[in-house]
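Notebook entry, structure prediction.
Reason for the run: the old model in the group folder had no record of what sequence produced it. Starting over properly, with the input documented here first.
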Amino acid sequence: MEENIPEPLSAKNKSSFAYFTIRDRLPVILSKVADTVYRKKTIVKDIHGEDATEELKFIAGCISKLRNELQTNKPLVPLKDNGPDTEVWNLSLAELTQREGGEPKWFVSPWLYVECYMYRRIQEAIAQCTILHNLDPFEEQKKKAFTDSEEATEVLLHYLRQISEMAASASDDDKEEYLREFLQIALWGNRCDLSISASQENSQTESILDQLHHLEPNILVNDTKQVLSCLRSNVKDRAIDIVLDNAGFELVTDLCLAEVLLMCGWADCIRMHGKAMPWFVSDVTSSDFEWTFDSLVKSSRPSMAYFGELWRQRLEKKSWMFTVEDFWTIPYDFAKMKTSASSLYERFKDSKIVFFKGDLNYRKLLGDLDWNPTTPFEVTLRGFHPTPLCALRTCKADLIAGLAAGQKETVEKQDKNWMLNGNWAVISFCGKSNQ
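New structure, fully documented this time:
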């Protein structure tokens, strides 16, 4: 098995998306962070005083230094803060140095590693502050992405409300149809991603319901039948986990999926997982999660307010749970969860199914390795089988698994950028479980 493991994706190949990302996208994101920090100067001074503006200067200086290191392909350096994950990061850097036979560098080392390292370095600058240690440099962008999507959100939640009124008397076939539909809604909600657009505006302005029929042929791997079979047959435990990706409209689609799973009796408890720190621009943190609920509850739009209140009750009664884990922002892929986050792995063993949302989670499932596209999804997981799992991912990076022979070539004729533009997707299921 080990002999057949491919190489990690990296920027060594100058025609790769990894090279484009590190050369062009990441410096833009860092510049945006520095600009955001600079623009906060007046309001931060008014709230926190002069010392806080000095901390802003410190953060901006760290970001500028980081940008220079990236653009000039300097070696990655150990972290200096006292975060709960600092030791893990520095150990992983030492391991990577030993593996590569030299100091890891931006344009040479594994793409997934250096991209995650960049976001961790942003957090390092903030964590060293006394007053601004909880600053989220992406907060404004995430909030804007949500508010700009309010019309589409209301349309979607109005439809969900109609479904919820029918659910009690719905047949099993009806309930399966609801799940099929909301799996696809959550899937295509993943198109709204601020990191892939280099933190430029990216909101949902059209009704996602109107797009489903048009987009369905673009689901290259569609294991919905296997997901339904798993939900029907797996009764060992009534909890379902959703590992979240982006805040904003995508989070709303994930909450809708959680609601359908609960109201149709597929689960008694939904456990949702977010990031412990600002990550990949738009990933969901606990602050984003709480702010989203507050915004829904306070909305003047009736269906948004209705579900805001209902979902708050679900959280209070613990039929919904939200947790953060350091594991989601440490440098290891999911095949190492069993040894690097054993308690999380054990919890997943008690889950009926785990849904992994988005491109970053998909990359971590596959180890960000250069797999042949026809490699079975189960193989690419490299032993990560705590319980049945399903990846809901729109394609935004040049790796994929589970395609049929010739499928890649057929799609390339239709769309040469199919692996990167978010217009194609997979619903990939693996039912293997190492219990």
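Summary: Strands lie at 219-222, 239-243, 269-274, 320-324, 354-357, 389-394, 425-430.
The old model has been moved to the deprecated folder.
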